[in-house]
Amino acid sequence: MNMEVLEPGLLTTVQDCGRHGYRHLGVGQSGVLDSFSAAVANILVGNSPGSPLLEMTLRGPVVRFSVPVRIAICGAGIDAHCGDLVLPLWRRIDLAADSTLRFGACRSGARAYLAVNGGFEINPLLGSASTDLRAGFPGLAGRQLLAGDRIRLADGIRPDCAEPRIARSWANPSPELDLKQPALVRLLPGSDQLADGDVLHATAWTIGSASNRQGLRLSGASLRLRKPREAISEPVMPGTLQLPADGNPILLLADAQTHGGYPRIGHSIRADWPRLAQLRPGERVYFVPCTLEQATNLWRSQQQGLARLAIAVSQADQA
Q1: Which pLDDT score, from 0 to 100, does residue 112 have?
Q2: Are 23 and 254 in contact (CB under 8 A)?
Q3: What pLDDT is recorded for position 228?
Q4: What is the pairing mode between strands 240-242 and 205-207?
């Protein structure tokens, strides 16, 4: 055992970059909801961006490491302590053996990520260690973490330190993930057109309490199709904006089903999925029209920023 779960938190799961290439078989993607924060956390500790890590929702766990570890915490503004020491986010931190890491509530945002150098030893299924809660695989027995769980760490750096050691440098999440600013999410047009498309972009949509890793339930205006049609099951994916019969849209996230019968009225661009992942019930999101060219450029820019961070971290380690 290298890490023991003393308290599980509200919803803590093992995730990586997801399970790809199996949607035609009815297998969803799963994986981290905030891919940007997860990638930064992994890069800071020296892992590849898609390595398995912990995703913590609204309130984090309490875990104890039996060996020295190098960690990073990114994403939501979560309270984190090691003993009496308040741990910063977006930095590399070395912890001594037998350290207890205690997470509290997310003060801003909804999901935080804990990366450990080397990652976690989780048997992958269909090429991914991600937990799919709806399908029940794989992660840790296909479920969220529970008190008493023990997870083995993969081989990695075991820092020589008697107390927490915090790096001076840090990663800046802005502007990719600025939780102090209104949530503006860019939207590509869908295959189904609305009777009044301006309403979609003029409305402040409120996140419903029934939202989860499968999707965000939104309220704010009742939308109608320009040409109502018979419901036919069609492919959907994370980012798809569906319109149920009640007129309140649903924006699908990483645990989205592979097919659905609701009309598809838009698709959020991939570069904005991290911001969607950080929305809490009661918060608002605004949709902004976007072109395919803009979406492609924004995604490339985000990936280039992560690549530059990886180079900077590597050079700092070699200095």
Answers
A1: 98
A2: no
A3: 83
A4: unpaired
Give the pairing of strands 259-260 and 264-268.
unpaired
HEC states along the chain?
Answer: CCEEEEECCCEEEEECCCCCCCHHHCCCCCCCCCHHHHHHHHHHHCCCCCCCEEEEECECCEEEECCCEEEEEEECCEEEEECCEECCCCCEEEECCCCEEEEEEECCCCEEEEEECCCECCCCECCECCCECCCCECCECCECCCCCCEECECCCCCCCCCCCEECCCCCCCCCCCCCCCCEEEEEEECCCCECCHHHHHHCCEEECCCCCCCEEEEECCCCCECCCCCCCCEECCCCEEECCCCCCCEEECCCCCCEECCCEEEEECHHHHHHHHCCCCCCEEEEEECCHHHHHHHHHHHHHHHHHHHHHHHHHHHC
Q: Cα separation of 133 and 152, whole Å?
A: 21
Under a CB-based contact definition with an 8 Å cutoff, are residues 77 and 109 in contact? Answer: yes
User: Smallest Cα–Cα separation from 238: which of 260, 214, 209, 262?
Assistant: 214
Tokens linked to 259 = 């097919």
Q: Answer yes or no: pTM beyond 0.90.
A: yes
Q: Which residues of the chain have pLDDT under 70?
A: 1, 319
Give the pLDDT confidence score for residue 1 in this predicted structure. Answer: 61
pLDDT at site 172: 93
111 closest CA partner among 13, 191, 217, 184: 13
Evaluate the omega torsion of the peptide bond into residue 175 and state whether it is cis, within 30 degrees of 0: yes
Give the model's pLDDT for residue 213: 96
Q: Parallel, antiparallel, or unpaired: how do β-strands 250-252 and 240-242 relate? A: antiparallel
